[in-house]
Design brief:
The structure holds 2 protein chains of 2 kinds.
Chain A: H1 2-36, E1 66-70, E2 76-80, E3 87-92, H2 101-109, E4 119-123, H3 133-139, E5 145-146, H4 150-155, E6 163-167, E7 174-178, H5 183-200, H6 211-226
Parallel strand pairs in A: 3-4, 4-5
Antiparallel strand pairs in A: 1-2, 3-6, 6-7
Chain B: E1 3-6, E2 9-12, E3 18-22, E4 36-40, E5 64-71, E6 108-116, E7 119-127, H1 130-146, E8 148-149
Antiparallel strand pairs in B: 1-2, 2-8, 3-4, 4-5, 5-7, 6-7
The chains are: A alpha/beta, B mainly beta.
Chain lengths: 247, 156
């Protein structure tokens, strides 16, 4: 009997130490986030990894199903991004963003070449209350799908332009997102993002992991992405010579 | 599921379906162009004629195309538009190749006229092939069931 009590006490002690280590680890991450400051604003000046940002959805279905808005000619459109046979690349661009100029120019020069044929490209400027439809019409090739929608910017938590979101056509889950200064860079990053998803399995999430742990990981991922820290960022890895945290 | 609305027509859009509502620009609603709604389980081109010109020629055997075309409001009182609700629960037996605006091999179609909220419409549905009934007719029925039409001010 006494051995049972002793064993239980030891188990509780180990569990307590584990919880302390976890709290210490999160505190370190939060401190690092404060040092880096907030997320990038409109007109990002350098490429970022098209990383996978988990989203805190407050219990709502995290899948994207449709993108809805108006075309430059005033038609109301609802375009599906889920339950379709191919992935969708949403390009959040602006007519006034200097970083978007090269992207618009490449799009006009080679509209069929900017994304692989198996992916649907949808250009998503903000709605007509924020963007000029005629300015967008002058920039976008007529064969491109354009959906002007400020709601979409809000739904996808777009921090600024240019910004790209890759949506899995079957599930509607977000395979990757981020910013880039050229279409070739966007494609390169998409390839990295989708290969990461393949390595990690469906949704890149361990299905055996407890849901609470998964939610915590997703929340940390979201905080890091908001601060501009994407998968592969050097700041996530200790420099050579650093001692590991004691547990 | 989120409801989408334009030109006084609102509906729920099934997963995987695309909807485009083209509205008249700069014209009086009772004089000239009227809105038409297109819905499909495949991507729609930006340029389309009301009865599917520019669309139906490229449809495949699993594709389903739905068009709601509005007519002038005084047509709502005529015999042709006597049915007083949006057609729903479409079945395979309602379709016929002879109902197609443009006969295309393998396709079959349906045309039904109705009025609702003082507005006159034609429902035109094209199914690309036998597989389209299995893959798309249920979704088309769900979409039609969800349609709500508001009266235009001054018409009723």
């Amino acid at each position: 009997m006494i051995w049972f009590v002793v064993g239980e006490a030891v188990a509780l002690l180990v569990l307590g130490l584990f919880v302390l280590a976890l709290v210490h680890s999160y505190a370190g991450l939060a401190a690092r986030l404060e040092q880096r400051g907030g997320p990038g604003a409109t007109g990002a000046s350098e490429d970022s990894t098209l990383g996978r940002r988990a989203r805190s959805t407050g219990g709502e279905d995290p899948r994207a199903i449709h993108v809805a808005g108006v075309t430059t000619s005033g038609d109301t459109v609802v375009l599906p991004v889920s339950g379709v046979g191919r992935d969708t690349l949403l390009a959040f661009l602006s007519s006034t963003c200097r970083s978007c100029e090269h992207l618009w120019r490449e799009l006009r020069d080679e509209p069929e070449q900017v994304v692989p044929s198996g992916i649907r490209l949808i250009i998503v400027p903000k709605g007509p209350e924020r963007e000029s439809p005629s300015a967008i019409a002058a920039l976008a090739p007529p064969e491109c799908d354009v959906v002007m929608s400020s709601t979409a910017w809000s739904d996808f938590d777009v921090p600024g332009s240019p910004y790209f979101v890759l949506v899995d056509g079957e599930s509607g889950s977000i395979s990757g997102e981020g910013t880039a200064m050229s279409w070739s860079r966007v494609i390169d990053l998409m390839a990295v993002s989708t290969s990461d998803a393949t390595i990690g399995g469906a949704g890149s999430r361990d299905s055996h992991k407890p849901q609470r742990d998964q939610r915590q990981e997703e929340e940390v991922d979201r905080l890091l992405m908001d601060a501009g820290v994407f998968p592969g960022d050097p700041s996530l890895y200790p420099a050579v010579g650093d001692a590991p945290d004691a547990t | 599921m989120k409801r989408f609305e334009a030109c006084g027509i609102s509906l729920l859009v099934p997963v995987g379906w695309e909807v485009r509502i083209t509205s008249p620009t700069g014209r009086d609603h009772d004089d000239g162009e009227r809105p038409f709604l297109h819905a499909a389980n495949f991507p729609l081109p930006s340029r389309r004629a009301p009865f599917g010109g520019g669309v139906v020629h490229a449809m495949g055997p699993t594709d389903v195309f739905v068009a709601l075309i509005e007519y002038e409001s005084k047509s709502a009182a005529t015999a042709l538009f006597a049915a007083h609700r949006v057609p729903v629960r479409l079945q395979r037996g309602d379709f016929s190749p002879s109902s197609l605006q443009r006969a295309i091999r393998g396709q079959t179609g349906l045309q039904q006229f109705f009025h609702v909220s003082g507005r006159a419409f034609c429902l035109y549905v094209v199914v690309g092939g036998h597989q389209g009934f299995r893959s798309g007719l249920n979704d088309a029925n769900d979409l039609l069931w969800s349609v709500r039409v508001n009266a235009i001010a001054g018409v009723l």
